[in-house]
Design a protein that fits this description.
The protein is an all-alpha fold. Helices cover 86% and strands 0% of the residues.
Amino acid sequence: MSKKQYIGIIILAVIILGFLFYWYEYRPTKIKERCSAEAHFDISAVLEPDYNKRQEFINNYYNDCLMRFGLK
């Protein structure tokens, strides 16, 4: 195996590992952060005076958001 082939295999492995990290770790984390922020700062949640109803709305919104982005 030549040096160029060896370097090519290493570069390909780094690219594949980088993509896998992005797809399974970074992307879902960012989606969860976004959905949480959207749920907590939605006008319906902010204006709801009852804590239990507010939490129920936030949970439902969060779960719907995760489904919208394909995480559930």
